[in-house]
Amino acid sequence: MDRVYECELSKKSDVMETLEADPYSEDSFARAGYKVKEGTAIDEDREKLYIYISASEDFLKKADEKLKEVAEPARDDVQERIIKKIKEEEERVGSGVASIGSMFGED
Question: Structure pTM?
Answer without folding.
Answer: 0.85
